[in-house]
Design brief:
This protein has 439 residues and is mostly beta strands. The protein has 5 helices and 26 strands. The radius of gyration is 23 Å and the shape is globular.
Length: 439
């Protein structure tokens, strides 16, 4: 505040700035806003790109935010939740000079985090809970830049204070930091077992839309030069009271092999509905160890513990010609080496050839063993049926748009649009969602 450019200096506009306040009306203001809107429900940041687990906004920064944007009561609310209602745990060196006297007596609303997709970052934040702090689904379509990873269209999912689909985060200047920044270390599609390119990668958001029961984002990128399509559509379907799940469609065309890869956020995982067959030592799958083939077709599940009384269940909807493996891969997340040798289970679903491919998955955070999702299956052409404890949700995804006729128990009705959902409960259509709205 009160910044002046050197005497005799003139900016590109021919003017010299004298005693200006750089906080309001600048990109600097948007940076602070992005810091707030990008938080998880536990007020840490997601560990994507060059970010660590458990990274928070420091009290020193919160003091500056509250002092320089007094009209933004959400910043005061965040300061109070971090430093106590009496602000006794604030950052004294800045509070002494910047904090408004008596600020601790000023009422602040609860911290509420919004659904948000920054046009600069192209990273969608989809949330549940009345305050947006119950869960966070993060889909990244950001352009490549310094401090980024080779992670275009990476998906991460956090719920009830726990990672379900995790990003390994940043290994700082660790000699093996590429293990955490490479493409196969992320929850995305790897083409021809190669890292995504960094130049001309791009990233575009096709749509980002939120409603009471459905929050959805679709994005694409040019992460691989040899693909004609590299597109992901991810949504949270929310029935309230913690009953929510993620449905995910990943489309890719090009290359010799296409690997849909994700890793568990726990050291072990259990395969359900498929036989597990040990591969011979000659089988090479990236640099993974303990490679095991998953035998079978159709829909299968894998689950892992994410914390006390919570499990992540991943439903995998196979497509013709798809093969799958589970293996142990890089799991270290601490650049100080407290977890050297840590591994995580990696699931690889592979297709081969030049035909268009569609990887479909459903992810749910199950609390106290009470699963909300009961089954997942294709019910009609292009219509995914997700049976829940309340009924059946019918989901369609078609980037070019179009009309899909739902099953008979949905009254044979048709839904049109790029993404649509109809929830059938007690034999009646309880609600619908279409993107664009009104189709």
């Amino acid at each position: 505040r009160g910044y002046s450019e050197p005497t005799g200096y003139r900016g590109p506009d021919g003017q010299r700035r004298v005693a200006v306040d750089l906080y309001p009306g600048t990109a600097y203001e948007r940076i602070w806003e992005n810091c707030f809107k990008g938080l998880q429900g536990d007020l840490t940041f997601p560990a994507y790109a060059d970010s660590y687990r458990d990274t928070r906004i420091g009290a020193n920064f919160l003091e500056l935010m509250a002092a320089n944007y007094p009209e933004r009561l959400e910043y005061l609310a965040l300061l109070k939740e971090t430093c106590g209602d009496d602000l006794a745990k604030g950052y004294a060196p800045l509070a002494l000079y910047y904090r408004e006297p008596g600020l601790e007596k000023k009422p602040a609303p609860p911290v509420v985090l919004p659904d948000w997709c920054s046009p600069e970052l192209r990273i969608g934040h989809l949330r549940t809970g009345v305050d947006g702090r119950e869960s966070l689904l993060l889909l990244s379509a950001s352009h490549w830049a310094n401090h980024h990873h080779q992670d275009s269209l990476n998906l991460s999912y956090w719920k009830n204070g726990r990672e379900l689909l995790s990003d390994l985060g940043y290994l700082w200047d660790h000699p093996r930091k590429h293990q955490a920044s490479r493409t196969v270390a992320h929850n995305t599609v790897v083409v021809d077992e190669k890292d995504q390119r960094t130049k001309e990668r791009g990233g575009e958001v096709a749509f980002f839309r939120t409603a009471e029961h459905v929050k959805v984002m679709e994005a694409s990128s040019q992460a691989y030069a040899g693909t004609s399509e590299y597109r992901r559509t991810s949504a949270i379907i929310d029935h309230g009271a913690g009953r929510s799940y993620v449905v995910d469609f990943f489309r890719v065309q090009g290359g010799r092999t296409q690997d849909f890869v994700y890793h568990a956020a726990a050291p072990t995982a259990e395969i359900v509905d498929r036989a597990v067959q040990e591969e011979s030592a000659a089988k090479k799958l990236y640099d993974f160890t303990r490679v095991r083939a998953l035998e079978g077709e159709d829909v299968w599940r894998v689950s892992w513990e994410t914390g006390e009384n919570q499990t992540c269940v991943a439903w995998n909807v196979s497509q013709p010609g798809e093969r799958a493996w589970i293996a142990d891969g890089w799991g270290q997340r601490d650049w100080k080496n407290s977890d050297v040798g840590a591994t995580l289970p990696y699931i690889v679903r592979r297709t081969e050839g030049a035909a268009p491919r569609l990887f479909v998955s459903v992810f749910e955070g199950v609390s106290d063993g009470r699963a909300f999702v009961r089954s997942v299956a294709w019910r009609a052409p292009g219509v995914l049926a997700i049976e829940t404890a309340l009924g059946t949700d019918y989901v369609t995804s078609e980037p070019a748009g179009g009309t899909r006729v739902l099953a008979a128990d949905a009254g044979g009705r048709a839904l049109a649009g790029r993404f649509a959902v109809a929830s059938v409960q007690a034999g009646q259509v309880a609600w619908t969602f279409t993107e664009p709205e009104g189709n």
